[in-house]
Amino acid sequence: MPVLLEGSCHCKAVKYTVESNTPVPYQMCQCSICRKTGGYMGSINIMGNTKTLNIIRGKEKIKMYHAAVSFDENDKPKEMGNSKRIFCTECSSMLWNYHDEWPDWIYPFASSIDSPNPLPPIPSSTTLITVKRDSCPDYVPVPEGAKSYDGYGPGKGIEDWHKQYGAWVE
């Protein structure tokens, strides 16, 4: 049974809801893009059901950033990535990202989720994973106990990963 997540940006100009079958933060992406847009260690993702996304207010304050994965010698984008990040144009809070190849899911940034608060208890069998370490400098640490992957890791998203490793899925 999905959980209704409520999210917003820092300045509250944008407010949204999305249903999630997996409402527990599970993945820290440490790719070069997430570290630049989300902070030194990267960004923490949750998985939401795209069709349930409801922008309550602030649609006009939302902008999409389609990130480059490589640049030429003049710092012009050479190759574009596949994820598109949604953020607030007022306070620049990251809200969610999505990938065209996985149209059923969006990935709210855990930092934008306001409720449920607290999130459901995370069983001790649940493991944080870090992904995209192949584009991350060695000096960026992996959190203690996290499983680390150069790419995105096993499966096509949190639901596949949890099924494979037996972690929390309702």
TrEMBL record:
Annotated keywords: Lyase, Metal-binding, Zinc
Domain of life according to the entry: Eukaryota
PANTHER family in UniProt: DUF636 DOMAIN PROTEIN (AFU_ORTHOLOGUE AFUA_1G09754), GFA DOMAIN-CONTAINING PROTEIN
Family of this protein: Belongs to the Gfa family.
Pfam families for the chain: GFA
Organism: Kwoniella newhampshirensis
InterPro entries (UniProt xref): CENP-V/GFA (IPR006913), Mss4-like_sf (IPR011057)
GO MF: carbon-sulfur lyase activity; metal ion binding
Residue span(s) of domain CENP-V/GFA: 5-150
Protein name as annotated: CENP-V/GFA domain-containing protein
